[in-house]
Amino acid sequence: MITINDFNFKDKKALIRVDFNVPLNQKLEVTDTTRIEAVEATISKILKDGGKVILMSHLGRPKAKEDKFSLRHLISKVEAIIDRKVRFVSDCIGNEVETEVKNLKNGEILLLENLRFYKEEKEGNIDFAKQLAKLGDIYVNDAFGSAHRAHASTAIIAQFFSKNKCFGLLLAKEITSINQILNNSKKPVTAIIGGAKVASKIEVINHIMDKVDTIIIGGGMAFTFIKAQGGNIGNSLVEDDKLELALEILAKAKEKKTRIYLPIDVIAADAFSNDANTMIIEANEIPDGWMGLDTGPKTNIGNAFVIAGSKTILWNGPLGVFEMKSFEKGTKELGFAIIDATAEGAFSLVGGGDSVAAVKQFNFADKVSYVSTGGGAMLEMLEGRKLPGIEAILN
Ligand code: AMP
């Protein structure tokens, strides 16, 4: 895998695609800097070599040039994290940008305006990609969160750099970590797949079934499986059009000798509210008017036992409505079990928007082996798909 470590950037302009799609509050202040911190190592190495850094990213889903989606709102945070002055140009292609790039000195950083102010970015327009490509000598892709998109700046652009293209340190680490789960894993391997929707995770379950020994299914999606097996799930979340599919998955797992664990008991509530009345009940005996919102104590002990015996752990999706205190326990205890297993030498990878949020909420982030920055991109890799942003560098 070719990374920035294979290049010396002295006197070179590094055009880096980063994923600065960070959340902003009403006052347009950055509320979570994880994605900026994640590319700090890449930027530092290039500056240390004596190179010039040109950063390009998208932010949100602008319809036109709207100030609330301007990357200028990120300048102070990027400066604080990289500990250098950051120059900014209010466009990403054209004469003004080219002049700024020409004036850029070794060791300086230039941040371009939101790529998605041009619809050509998402269209993967080749002329737009060519205009961007003019700005750099070496193309670096460090935007894992966008690697599953064949956009101008994430994939199409790479063809203009012949051999002068590579992965940034973040993207390289993401690829290595996911491959560690899929290919080089120490056994036994356990995947925990939770969250609300079966539909969004079904392909992941299908693909990883060949790679893992055990799959723990939790969260709202578990009830589709429980109902499919004839259980009473009351008013729990369910996708009735996925019942057949759920049975097929269970049958396939049996054939492949992959163990699938569903919750055996749950915390059921009489309303989707932190203050609802609750009871602990078997997962397949939930009465009408009640819904399962978290895993119950027996399930949590079982999960902890499975995790303790695992050498490789993948966690994607919460086991309950962890945003509400009354229903956080299953997710939290799972997190503790993963931390303990990691401390004992297991490799643990956490990814997917909501499990990352959970890991942060419970302060687990630095106690697992790796927290992925990409939601959709990670899921697509786990589904066994080739990501355009990665292929463009490899080809
Ligand atoms: P997803 O986006 O599919 O990963 O789902 C994440 C969401 O699933 C979180 O916001 C959780 O609150 C929610 N969730 C987890 N378990 C349940 C459950 N038993 N019932 C309803 N929602 C749930």
How does this structure look, described?
Strand 16, helix 13 (353-361) and strand 17 (370-371) form a beta-alpha-beta unit. The protein is built from 15 helices and 17 strands. The protein has 395 residues and is α/β, with parallel strands linked by helices. The chain has 2 domains: 4-167, Phosphoglycerate kinase, N-terminal domain (Rossmann fold); 175-382, Phosphoglycerate kinase, N-terminal domain (Rossmann fold), CATH 3.40.50.1260. The mean pLDDT is 95. Bound molecules: adenosine monophosphate.
CATH architecture identity of the largest domain = 3-Layer(aba) Sandwich
Strand portion: 15-25%
Structural class: alpha/beta
Cofactors, ions and other ligands in the entry: adenosine monophosphate
How many H/I helical runs? 15
Can you identify the CATH superfamily of the largest domain? Answer: Phosphoglycerate kinase, N-terminal domain
Spatial ordering of strands, largest sheet:
3-4-2-1-5-6
List unreliable stretches of 5+ residues: none
Query: What is the end-to-end distance?
Result: 11 Å
CATH class descriptor of the largest domain: Alpha Beta
User: The biggest beta sheet, please?
Assistant: 6 strands, parallel
What name does the CATH topology of the largest domain carry? Rossmann fold
* Rg computed from alpha carbons, rounded to a whole number of angstroms: 23 Å
The dominant shape is elongated
